[in-house]
Structures are given as C-alpha cells and as structure tokens.
Design a protein that fits this description.
21% strand; binds zinc ion; alpha/beta; 385 residues; Nucleotidyltransferase, domain 5; 16 strands; Arc Repressor Mutant, subunit A; 39% helix; five-stranded mixed sheet; single chain; globular
C-alpha cells in the first residue's frame, strides 16, 4: 500500500536514518548525527534520547579523553537491542544465524540438504528457526531470508533448477504461519549485495556484486538502492550470451556466460588439466602451472566480457567478486579489472575497481540479516508504531 508522506513517516524515517548511521559507524555522536541528517542539535538530542530509552542504542564512553567538562559521548548499538534471525537457503544447506543491528553475527548453525521434498525442507526450516530462536530469549525482532531464485511475488521459491525437483516452496508463508515475526525474503545474491553495501559503510552507491558458484548471478546497487523489477529480483548475469553459436544452456539460450566461466566450470577444467579433483585451496599453487594459468586467464577474460556488457549499460563504480569468486587469485582479479577498463565504451569514466567481497565467501549469510536491516534503516519494522 502506498502512503502519503506525513509527520509520522518523517519521524520513522529519521529514526531509521539515525540508527543506520550509528550501526554502520558513519556518525557516532549527537553532533555528527545532526550534521549528517540536517536536523537541529535539539531534535538530534531528542531522537537519540528516545532510542536510548527504547534500549536500542547506548552511550559507550567519551569520544575524546582528557577534556575538561562533560565530553561528548560515543553512541553505539545497545546489548539490549533486539536481534534478527537470518536464514540462508542454498541448494545444499540452510544456514541459520542471529545478527545484531550492527550486522554482526553472534550465532550460526546449519542443516545440510540431501534428498529433500518440499515437506522435508519445510520441517528443517521450522526446526532450525525454533532452535535459533531459543538461543536468544525472545529478543527477536524479525526474520530475514536470503534464498535461491527464482522467487515469486509471494516469497516462494518456484521451479528453481537443481533443487530436488521441487516446484514450489512457499518460504515466506511457511515462516509467517509458524512464527510471530515480520519476515523479509530476498534473492540470495541481491541480499549479498545489500550486505556488502552496508558492511562497506555505504561508501559505494553504484556497484555490481557477482555471486559465482555453480551459476553466476548479479546483485545490483544503483544510487544506493537494490535494483529490482516490479519488486522481483533481477541480475541473471550468467545468462549473458558470449557466443551465439556456443553450447546450449538449460535456460534455452545458447552460449551463456555461466557455461564457460562459473566456479564449477573452472573447477572442472582445472581438475581435467591436472588429472585430479581440485578445490579452491589449490588455486594459488595451480596458478603457477602454465596449463592452469591459461585456464584461469581464459575464465577471467570471459567474466570480464560479461562485466563489460554490464558496465556499458549500468556504469557501476565497482564490481565485487563474491561466493566462490572470492577465491580467485588476485592476479586474475587484476586481469578482469584491466580488461574492463581498457575495453568499456566510456573510457573517460573514472577507473572501475574490481575487488573481492569484504564478507569473503559468506556475503549471503550476512545478506539474510542485511535485508531486514535495510527495512529497519528505512524506518520500517522497528519504528512502525
Ligand atoms: Zn542460459
């Protein structure tokens, strides 16, 4: 439902904004908060006091020591602040976590997925959330879910490839029917992009997060917001065609990027080259082998080709390599960055940087927490009443 902007909306938005700036460390004093939000010192002081009395933030020591008189106090998220349950549903496991309003994970467990039906996954989902919930003595505010797509507008996983042949898993409904918390669901790669955005202190406004595993997906942040289409997630980076006469892709098209450059394809090519099963731990050593170096370079060039296409359309400031893409040796990350910058259309633009995920291979786990934080920081969930 669309609402008009009224005084209450502004109040909620300001509280969300305050909390966000404290949580991501952008502003740590009343003075900085006033400056950043354009509010008067008095209003900033009042909102701060309100958040303190709600038990959400607390004063945690003077900002500088040794001054005479009362020193300004540093503000931080309070221990008593409510927590968020995160659920990350991938193709081979469900990861449950508890996150703080600062985005730190303080509890984590996982349940592997083996030969599942929609009933058995539903049971695992409910059991896992119950166990996670118990670890926090009822101080739960909401549940965030980062999950494989495609996702429909009701928050269900629909016809996801390689997902035990399950036609539909109504994740949002299942959780909301069993638990009293608001539930936010998001595609895992988009959630990972939101997590990287927050963890990076929102310094980048336009970037593309590339999740590289058995497929290739992109989470796109444009002007500081997650890009969606009719509220559905987008970014099928792996299905950019790089060879129209190429191999047939399960999606129906030919020559899709992920057939040539996904992490699983890279592992297979390297394994074939050295005659044994290769893992990410072997990458640095293998990069010194000339046959493997060629395979790594070829993969990097193909990834760059897809990223150049995205660059020409979106003009991002950066690409972040996440999931198993995090393990790509730096030499090839540099190759990708050089290729993009030398071959993109707008060469006069500022240099695009390509770097590995801050959250290493765990961006999606943090993402399940981050999608809830994103709503809270907009003034939703925590400040609705
Ligand atoms: Zn395809």
């Amino acid at each position: 439902m669309k609402r008009g902007i009224n005084g209450n909306d502004i109040k909620r938005t300001n509280r969300g904004l305050f909390l966000k700036n404290i949580a991501i460390g952008k502003a740590i004093s009343r003075m900085e908060l006033a400056k950043l939000t354009g509010l008067t010192k008095m209003t900033a002081g009042n909102i701060t006091q309100e958040l303190i009395s709600m038990g959400i933030i607390e004063e945690c020591g003077p900002i500088y020591a040794g001054t005479t008189g009362p020193a300004p106090q540093k503000l931080c998220i309070a221990e008593t602040a409510p927590k968020i349950i995160g659920v990350y549903i991938s193709r081979d496991e469900i990861v449950f976590s508890i996150g703080t309003l600062s985005g730190d994970i303080i509890y984590k467990s996982n349940i592997p997925l083996l030969n599942e039906t929609s009933d058995s996954i539903t049971q695992k989902l409910i059991d896992g959330i119950k166990t996670t919930e118990k670890s926090q003595n009822d101080n739960i505010l909401a549940i965030g879910v980062a999950m494989i797509g495609p996702i429909d507008s009701d928050g269900a996983i629909v016809d996801s490839p390689n997902f035990f042949g399950i036609k539909k898993l109504a994740v949002k409904n299942i959780i909301e029917n069993c638990f009293p918390y608001p539930t936010v669901v998001c595609n895992d790669i988009s959630a990972a992009a939101v997590a990287e955005h927050l963890k990076g202190g929102e310094k980048l406004s336009n970037f593309v997060f590339i999740g590289n595993a058995n497929g290739l997906g992109a989470g796109i942040i444009q002007s500081g917001e997650l890009m969606t289409s009719n509220d559905l997630f987008l970014g099928e980076f792996g299905h950019i065609t790089i060879d129209i006469n190429g191999e047939k892709c399960p999606c129906g098209n030919t020559g899709c990027l992920e057939l040539y450059a996904s992490h699983n394809v890279l592992l297979k090519r390297l394994s074939d080259a050295v005659g044994r099963k290769v893992t990410t731990e072997d990458f640095e050593v293998l990069s010194k082998n000339s046959k493997c170096d060629e395979i790594f370079t070829d993969t990097a060039e193909k990834l760059a080709a897809g990223m150049i296409t995205m660059t020409n359309i979106l003009r991002p400031e950066a690409f972040i390599l996440g999931y198993d893409g995090y393990f790509l040796p730096n030499k090839y990350v540099n190759i990708i960055e050089d290729k993009i910058n030398s071959l993109r259309f707008l060469k006069q633009d500022k240099r695009i940087s390509v770097f590995k995920a801050r959250l290493k291979a765990n961006s999606a786990i943090f993402g399940s927490i981050a999608v809830v934080l994103r709503e809270i920081f907009k003034g939703e969930i925590l400040f609705n009443n």
